[in-house]
Write a structure and sequence with these properties.
Helices cover 48% and strands 13% of the residues. It is of the alpha/beta class. A 5-stranded parallel sheet has the order 2-3-1-4-5. Helix 1 (17-28) crosses helix 7 and helix 3 packs parallel to helix 4. The longest helix has 20 residues, at 55-74. The protein is globular. It starts with 5 loop residues before the first strand and ends with a helix.
């Protein structure tokens, strides 16, 4: 895959977006932006309290990510950003901000593995209790969406390699 595409590393909480995103960015030779950093403080407080976000909560967050992606693509620079992007409508909103520039890497895996990873990670605001709402909200990539599914079993390096290879096959 060549720049100026922006890769959105997506998936439910605990799939490793924050771990895989920087590894993939290094392999692609582009910068990485942590999607959680685009959340307004009210969203983080809500999730920390175990309350799922509403669509209205997510729009400003998605718009901020979309603006970053648009800036990177418009400058011909490319990049990698993490975002759960669980619903088709969320991905549509991101695509509208950076038309023709986004490719999605959907990190997928066994629910038990993801739950176990969430339970053992340090310092993240998203509690394991919200995993059910994440899976209930998830709408996998459609056949008309530019992107790839990548299984999250194995080491972070193996997952990033699989993502890189899958993106290379997209062209």
């Amino acid at each position: 895959m060549s720049t100026p595409h922006v890769v959105v590393v997506m998936g439910v909480a605990g799939t490793g977006k924050t771990t895989i995103g920087p590894l993939l960015a290094t392999r692609l030779g582009v910068p990485y932006a942590e999607g959680d950093d685009f959340h307004p403080p009210a969203n983080i407080a809500k999730m920390s309290a175990g309350t799922p976000l509403t669509d209205e909560d997510r729009w400003p967050w998605l718009d901020a990510i979309g603006a970053w992606a648009h800036g990177r693509a418009a400058a011909g620079l490319g990049g990698v950003v993490s975002s759960s992007a669980l619903k088709r409508g969320y991905r549509d909103r991101l695509r509208a901000a950076a038309p023709g520039s986004l490719v999605f890497v959907h990190l997928t895996g066994d629910r038990k593995l993801i739950e176990d990873r969430m339970a053992h990670r340090q310092g993240h605001f998203m509690p394991t209790a919200l995993l059910d709402s994440q899976f209930a909200t998830l709408q996998p990539l459609g056949p008309d969406e530019a992107g790839v599914d990548v299984d999250v079993s194995g080491s972070p390096e193996e997952i990033a390699d699989r993502a890189f290879e899958a993106l290379a096959r997209l062209g």
